[in-house]
Design goal:
Layout: H1 9-15, H2 27-30, H3 36-53, E1 59-63, H4 71-87, H5 92-105, H6 108-121, E2 133-136, H7 142-152, E3 158-162, E4 179-182, H8 185-194, E5 196-201, H9 206-220, E6 229-232, H10 234-240, H11 243-248, E7 261-263, H12 266-279
Helix pairs in contact: 3-8, 4-5, 6-7, 6-12
Length: 288
């Protein structure tokens, strides 16, 4: 057996230097500010290549609050906050959290609607023998519910998780091969939109609004093909958003109010999507 030539200690030391690392194996190099364009490209390519390999071309995107839990979780959150406040009854932050937990408990029904919708859409043909794949932000709340519904149906679903300062991770109902993690919100939002053939928006806060208006703007300006946009919970949306007043002031056109519809149940959401594609057929090649 041929012996490896001896290497002097100076050469060994050089091999351990940062400069000697291969660029694509050097984490310190890859995380430099100057490498941001490369990281952006990698975040775009990894999910794109994976989903293409699995033949995923058409999705239904579900947005909604991470704070909407099922009835059991909601009750547990309220009980936990009440117990903490009992120990420190003067804590105003805890008082606010308890009040919030009480209000959010009333939204638990949306969790069940999202779960039911995830199950129904995963078993419904939009084109013969072709179904839409559920995609969410991959976190808890409404996102978990929609992924869970697809899981109930034995279907694969996608989670586009985001790295945040607060501790959070992917919900357990995402298909492992479709569980992606992002650093950049912009690239994550691109992946929401690229394959979207329908958008379903449940009640939510800043993040939900940001994601919803991104899609509305793209459709309004023609950057994205027309697709069914369904807002779930008309009471919530008409309370927090006065879309007709935007048209009244002239900042959107009256026709823009037709870009979305309201729904209350999983079945009603599916009906809206099917009705949309009866009028604007979704070709089989668009949904392989």
């Amino acid at each position: 057996m041929k012996k490896e030539p001896k290497v002097c200690k100076e050469t060994l030391a050089l091999r351990k230097s940062k400069a000697y690392r291969k660029a694509y194996l050097d984490p310190e190099f890859l995380t430099r500010d100057e490498l941001r364009p490369v990281r952006l490209q990698l975040e775009l390519l990894k999910p794109e290549m994976t989903l293409s390999e699995y033949g995923v071309k058409a999705t239904v995107v579900v947005f909604g609050s991470a704070r909407i839990w099922d009835k059991k979780q909601s009750a547990g959150r309220f009980t936990e906050m009440a117990a903490l406040l009992k120990k420190d009854p003067k804590d105003q932050v805890l008082k606010n959290k308890l009040a919030s937990a009480k209000r959010l408990a009333a939204s638990a029904r949306y969790y069940e609607v999202a779960r039911d919708f995830g199950r129904l859409i995963s078993t419904t043909d939009i084109v013969k023998d072709r179904k839409l794949v559920v995609v969410t932000g991959g976190g808890p709340g409404i996102m978990e519910a929609a992924n869970r519904g697809a899981h109930d149906a034995g279907a694969k679903s996608i989670g586009l998780n985001i790295t945040l300062d607060m501790e959070q991770g992917p919900n357990p109902y995402i298909s492992p091969e479709f569980c992606f993690r992002f650093h950049y919100f912009a690239i994550r939002k691109m992946h929401f939109v690229m394959r979207a053939r329908a958008l379903v928006v449940f009640p939510g806060g800043f993040g939900t609004m940001d994601e919803m208006f991104e899609v509305l703007t793209l459709v309004q300006t023609g950057k994205k093909r027309s697709l069914p946009i369904i807002l779930v919970g008309e009471d919530y949306w008409t309370d927090v958003m006065n879309f007709p007043n935007m048209a009244k002031w002239g900042y959107i056109s009256t026709e823009d109010l037709k870009l979305f519809r309201y729904a209350e149940t999983g079945e009603e959401i599916v009906d809206h999507i099917q009705a949309f594609y009866k009028n604007i057929p979704l070709h089989r090649e668009q949904i392989k």
